Amino acid sequence: MQKVTDDGGIVKIVLKPARAKNGDDDDQNQQPMAWVKGTNAKLHYKVTTAPFRQLEKAGSKSKVATTAPGNRRNDATARKRELKDSKEALHPKSERNGDDSDDDGASSAPTAPKAVYASPSGVQYTFDPSVRRTVADSTVDEEPFELRIGRKFMFPALETAVCTMRPGETSRFLLAPEYTDGFIQLESLLRKERAAADAQRAGRPAPAAAAHTCCMGLAVDAEKHADLYSTQGTPLEIEVILLDVQTQDQYERKVWEMSIVERYNEAPTHRARGTALVRSTPSDWSAARDAYRRSLELLEAVAQAPNVADARRERAHRGEPIDGPQARAPPIEHEDQVSSTWLDESLLAVRLNYALCSLKLSEYDAAAKQCTEILTSAPNHPKALFRRGLAHLRRGRDLELAERDFLAVLETGAMTRSDPEWAAAWQDLQGKWKAARQQESRLWRGVFLSAV
């Protein structure tokens, strides 16, 4: 074992050391690597409650095995036993199944539980494997967990632990209660994101996310994730597998890592890439959809940024046009150069293209959602109406909505009944209406016959 922090609040055991490129161990390969701010660590982790049970506080009637002060021989013996017990507690292969007997053949008479671990604040714990349980496992996600170094991560102890590792290494860390801050919040957030992603894939509304931290919201969260909140104030074990390390130019940054100017300037790049993929032969609809999705994420983040909205309001209050001489399309250098006109036009175009790709990939819920977003601000947009109608039609359960959208397209004057695309969609709709009516008629016929 080795101390990661000076006070012993984080302790490390290497389970599988990193390997040199030639497959051989060497001293240089086992030295800590230099971590730079912004480096991306791709990893998997598993969190369990440590196999320790807190002993009663000093001064109580509970007897805890201690050594007489000043007796160096006894102190040395106790330290050896504590080290042995701690190693066995941290390594599952050598758990003792509750056997706390000494190796020196001591009497088997019942004794008080021994203190095998003490937190930096002096709280003592005895070995108890029965309390160990898994509370988090990142392998349930399809992709590895990504940790940006030096970005004020909400679970600082995990970042501290990872920074002692090298790619390919597997290590287990024991965290004292003083170093577990942020774990509950992180895992609770990840669980909510997984639930939202599962709902989206299943076509269900995403669970309501608590956008506040009032007492009621915390109480509901604590009840829903009782297994997490029960770890408050207890030691934790974290087993980490460091899969890869990437520099800032080797990974795509998350939206929250970027400034408004960076988002604004980068969005057109992904839009252009999506368009090129659509026009390629054959069209790569999946890759194009991903490119449009990235562009949309960036544009939405710019549109929702408080600084952009505030700057626009201030210019309007001064009587200046929102899209004045300084406001322009990318690239820009300052936030006050954001063009609301360009932003709105880009959002509309990207949403339309995103919907088109989703239709091609049979992702009808996503296509309908993007078209509805457009129609919220532009109720008579013909392409949005037609593509949403196609999504309803191909989904097969919203024929009334499809018919309404197709007829609305005609009212805009952008298409006529003789247009091949509209006529084909309308014919398909009538065929599905006919099939639906025939099925309904058969159902009612069966009901009447069974009643005779």
From TrEMBL:
Region (Disordered): 16-122, 309-333
Organism annotation: Allomyces macrogynus (strain ATCC 38327)
A Pfam family matched in the record: FKBP_C
Bias kind Basic and acidic residues: ranges: 72-99, 310-321
Keyword presence, Protease: no
Name of the molecule in the record: PPIase FKBP-type domain-containing protein
Molecular functions (GO terms): peptidyl-prolyl cis-trans isomerase activity
Record keywords, A-Z: Repeat, TPR repeat
Domain PPIase FKBP-type: 132-179
SUPFAM superfamilies linked: FKBP-like, TPR-like
